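**User:** You know discrete backbone vocabularies at least as well as I do. Would you mind producing a protein record, from residues through to fold? Write it directly below this note and I will take it from there.

**Assistant:**
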Amino acid sequence: MILRQLAALSLGTLLFWACNQSSKKEGADARVGFQKGEIKKEDYGSCDTAAHKGVTVLVSLWQPTDSSAVASKIRQILTEKTIKRLNSYGDSASIAANPGASGSVKAAFDVFEKNYNDFKEDFPDAPGCWEVELHGDTVMITSKMLFYQLDHYSFTGGAHPNSFTSFHAFDAKTGEEVEMKSFVQDSVALLSLVEKKFRELGKLTPEVDLEDEGYFLVDHKFFIPANYVFTQEGVLFYYNPYEIAAYVRGAIDFTIPYEDLKGIIRKDAAF
């Protein structure tokens, strides 16, 4: 009898250990493909504020620092985005003449600086420095996704500087970028809900014509902003300056709680 009890106890202990090890493995498999990260900075050029001339580029981005393939992929994509942003200020001829501009931030800066110097030769009395700043950080990290915010500021002459924010989603197990629209389950219902919240924010009743109020529509129709992102509280919708209203209005943003997005957003794909 005692031997049977001891055997049963031993079997129970073995099963508990096996289940516990299985749970640990499942938990480990659910972890993201990176565990560490820090802000990485690159700073090029200088601005002579006394003489109102010069060109500067500041890049300050949170990046995963692990040696994993996932972390490497995310760093690669962030670098590519940075280079593309800088090259957007250069003319195609300059970039074609400097193929390295597509390969590194420093080389992209060199072309940006050359374009500034060429501009100053043609317009020596034009005041002001040319500046570009990129700041990136995480919005939220889950076992499935890394949601990222990239803030872009620039001044290359004109009446005022420009700034815009973009949001990006990375698969936490592959590092690949995922389009935010892939999380949308019902685009028609989402459009209706976003417009409802937009009007509530502006204290505009349903019958008010948005264009009469000075908003920019697409073919006279309301639209979801190009940038939105998952947060702990809900989905943040972000209209950049000029996207739906004049520059002076600034950015327009609001968060819709997940409770209101049931059946519209695939929350389970993010958490």
Observations:
- DSSP finds five helices and nine strands in the chain.
- The helical segments are 2-30, 69-87, 92-97, 105-122, 187-201.
